Amino acid sequence: MSSVTAAARRAAAPAARLPLVLAVAVVLAAIAYPLTDGGGRDAVSWTIVLLGSAVSVTSAAVAHGPRTGLSVLGLVAATAVVFESVGVATGFPYGPYAYSDVLGPTLLGVPFLVPLAWLMMAWPSWVLARLLTRRVRPGRQRPARVVVAAAVFAAWDVVLDPQLVQAGYWTWARPQPGLPGIDTVPLTNLAGWLLAGLVLMTLLDLVVARTALPGGRRTGDAAPLLVLGWMTLGGALAHAAFLDLPGSAAWGAALAVPVLVTLAVQARRP
Predict the structure, then answer these.
(1) Residue 106: φ, ψ to 5°
(2) Among candidate residues 217, 32, 233, 37, the one with its CA nearest the CA of residue 127
(3) Residue 107, beta-bridge partner list
(4) How far apart are CA 41 and CA 19, in angstroms?
(5) What pLDDT is attached to residue 217?
(6) Phi then psi for 214, rounded to 5 degrees?
(7) What is the mean pLDDT of residues 113-128?
(8) Which residue windows are transmembrane per the record (predicted)?
(9) How far apart are the first and last CA of the chain?
(10) 48-86 as b/e, with b when 16 or more CB fall inside 10 Å?
(11) How many whole angstroms separate alpha carbon 122 and alpha carbon 53?
């Protein structure tokens, strides 16, 4: 029996390493982004999102089983299309905005790349929230996890949105008032992302609970956390040094501080 178990573990090892390999590829593509321009930069954007969404699906599947991976893919894509199509048509809940033709084919007015970007962001946000709330009282852990995951999800967009507006992927009809230092993205967008995040993370938490294989997680969270960490902190560095976006760079650094402090405090506790 032990030889069979060992053989099964050896067979599963390459699949368990796949999310981390994809995450490293995301980091390399993200490094290339500020070093390119024009059509080359657009190609890098697609590469980042495709690889990042693959990290989310594969890491969810490796950690909780293939059913969870596929369920995360379907749930996030469907939720993204609903929110974004309503947003484009009505301006709710983000404020009025319009996509450019740069992102290619659309579904209900939503470029195909957008649900994949949500997928890239959603799973790492949920994984980090689970770590940040692991010491919360069990009865309050789920609502705390959902709220924190929604906040991380929205904070990620604080860094990402100015970059993609600069790239010409979408424009805001009324970009003011915005966060101090960010004059191209309105505060309504942040409110909309918080609302969308609360809905999405509530559903995502339920999906994981209902589809995960028994026995708990089967691997670590290195891949999604690497993607989240580099795309936010690395993105803030790129904004400051290469993209002439000091406001979003400062916000990215500031929003990372409470997360890092919380993780450090938790690590020091027995």
Answers:
(1) -130, 160
(2) 217
(3) 110
(4) 24
(5) 67
(6) -65, 155
(7) 96
(8) 44-63, 70-92, 112-132, 144-170, 190-213, 225-243, 249-267
(9) 36
(10) bbbbbbbbbbbbbbbbbbeebbebbbebbbebbbbbbbb
(11) 9
